[in-house]
């Protein structure tokens, strides 16, 4: 009798163990480091640390990040994965302009980020799974999968470039290029046009009213942010009244499904932009001053502001810029003509710095002064 009881108890224990296995497995599969969701992505993701560590070499970032704290400037050796890579290659972001929200597991409030900043190759947002050679563990629970988001500092003394315990990244509804073309009848008051960017306020207001440029939401314009080649294509198309065109597949890194493809085609057909020798267009590459000048000059010719023959008579030899010799030949006539028209007022004084990336405020000034002033 005792033997039967022992056998029954053993059988019961075995059944309990077997039945409990699926629940344990489900709990394990629900573990992840960060979730990426929202109307601005095609594919929602739940990424584990193993997923992040297993991403290809071109996605990995391992370098020092400088950040500011209450006790002064600090540095951390960060190892992780590019957030821009994840959003583009894995989540399939559906636009360039959107608000991105980071949610922390402890409920600590984090200011919304702009998708434009995240996709900016200079800011290098990274999902760090290792900092200073150690696994990330800010919540004190070793078994939790955890990441910290870092980005490069944009301005000296800037705070808010490290985001701890981020468990969810939400990409909002994209602001498509077609939305930009809809003119607004009243001026929008942007709250982040500080004294530093007062030189651009009138241009920003006028271009916003014309629907050529837009803010980033929440009353922000983000004047210090950069603009990509694709975004400049859409601005130029809106400025010149070009209709978007069916993409013909002329560039290796532009797909027909990309939101900017019709505008790239329109700009390319008009001769405003050309690709690179390797067949690429580099749509997500921030635009430089020399590129902006060349495009603005071509737009001025297209719009009848100046004849090409007249622009060709303007040469850098007569420029007042002390670094005029560093302006490449392909941009020289445009830079010289734009300088003479005062297009760079507030943007460049003694030096032009042709290879410097244009920020949103500067781009607004150059475009407004060239085509609308």
UniProtKB/TrEMBL annotation:
Residues 1-26 form the signal peptide. Pfam families: SLH. It comes from the Bacteria. Keywords: Repeat, Signal. Residues 187-246, 247-310, 318-373 form the SLH domain. PANTHER family: OUTER MEMBRANE PROTEIN ALPHA-RELATED, S-LAYER PROTEIN _ PEPTIDOGLYCAN ENDO-BETA-N-ACETYLGLUCOSAMINIDASE. This is SLH domain-containing protein.
